């Protein structure tokens, strides 16, 4: 999946996923993104659950159900 690919590329680029996430957070701060805190390379983290009330998988399944009902 794309999430797995992001983790593999992060480990290759920075030596580990956590080191890459640290780089992402440092870059966000350098860009002035004060309210941004990355927890993983995919963008789907605890923050996503907090904003939507759903896990990423549940959100995708819910969107698929909504689309199929609209058809």
Low-confidence stretches: none
Helix content: 55-70%
Mean pLDDT: 80
Largest sheet: none
The coarse silhouette is globular
By DSSP, the count of extended strands is 0
Q: Helix count? A: 4
Write the H/E string, N to C.
HHHH
Spatial gap, N to C terminus: 27 Å
- Class per helix and strand makeup: mainly alpha
Assembly state? single chain
Using only C-alpha atoms, the radius of gyration works out to 15 Å
What amount of the residues lies in strands? under 5%
List the helices and strands and how they pair.
Layout: H1 2-14, H2 17-30, H3 46-52, H4 56-70
Helix pairs in contact: 1-2
Explain what the structure shows:
The protein is mostly helical and 71 residues long. It has four helices and no strands. The two termini are 27 Å apart. The protein is globular. Helix 1 crosses helix 2. Helices cover 69% and strands 0% of the residues.
